[in-house]
Design a protein that fits this description.
This protein has a single domain, classed as Rossmann fold (3-Layer(aba) Sandwich), CATH 3.40.50. The chain is 35% helix and 19% strand. The chain is globular, with a radius of gyration of 13 Å. The longest helix is centred in the middle third of the chain and has 14 residues. The model has no long low-confidence stretch (mean pLDDT 96). A seven-stranded mixed beta sheet has the order 3-4-2-1-5-6-7, sandwiched between helices. It is built from five helices and seven strands; from the N terminus they run H-E-H-E-E-E-E-H-E-H-E-H. With 132 residues, it is α/β, with parallel strands linked by helices.
Amino acid sequence: MSDAIEDFLAAGSWAVVGASTNREKYGNKVLRCYLQNDKAPLFAVNPRDAEVEGVPAFQSLADLPEIPRAISIITPPSVTDVVVAGALELGVEHFWMQPGAESEEAVGAIEDAGKSVIAGGPCLLVVLGYRE
């Protein structure tokens, strides 16, 4: 496992940006994978729903009760750009763009800020061994 992945998984607080109530979507599966692996504290970011899989959901990272050290991003690339800009302002340290969420602009912004980014690589579900 790469150092970036090990550091991400050891970060100590996580948020899933793009968490979904639809159990078929990756935003739901990634959140459930964190729950299956007892990763806490865990936050869901979903602007439309109040809860995802029993986890309170917040409209944005800025609305969370604490700033997570690490975020998984499961959004379209154009949204990823906005999410990353806001997360960098808040001081998020570790970023994991799930396949399909990658944005070259966002990756560059994270690297320029000296933060850790995983993009274009493995999916969190594979690394942690997600179970349906």
